[in-house]
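Q: What would this chain look like folded?
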Amino acid sequence: LEESINIKDWIGYPFIENLKLELEIKNIIWESDVICGGIGEYNEIAKIRKEKDFSLLYLNLGTGFGASFIKDGIPFKSNKGLTLRMHKMALPYGDEIYTSVDFLSGNSITQDTTYKSTEELYVDYKNGNIEAQDLISKAQRQLAAWLINLNYLLSPDLIVLNGGLTYDFEVICEEAIDLANEDLKNQVEIIPSKLKEMATIYGAFVNNG
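A: My prediction, written as structure tokens:
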């Protein structure tokens, strides 16, 4: 493990070698959760559509933020390192460049706001609390910017939104999609996850097969 926000004490721990020993198996395919999630969603949608000739951009909004791009069933990767690292993305603001993921997440919500949980924030938002509405509004605008920029960068046939922040879809996602479509003009379909928590597990199973 080379980098982690949530489990910093485990950085440098040899996961793969120790897992091989513990499970007594020779070969392990080690894949990121967001790539497995994208593979899972892709295969579920391919079953429904009865075809696999399409591309899918998978965004997971939860404790952190991640993305993967799946084309014809194969995740896009670079030999130089991990791709679509959403927490590294940046946006200009005035004369500065700042991170585009400084809005709420499972990590930042309890560190950067008065809220102890995302659930508490969502309740306040629905009840018309001004602080909650300001935070959610910022999140909606930044998600809309992602959707616009990534669509023009990757030109996916479909965008799938998954993760804990998306399960109450109307809070952040619906408004973000509406904002994005002011530019995109509905040129790409943006939908909620079909598999939710099972996307990563299904993707790992399919990837192993």
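The mean pLDDT is 89.
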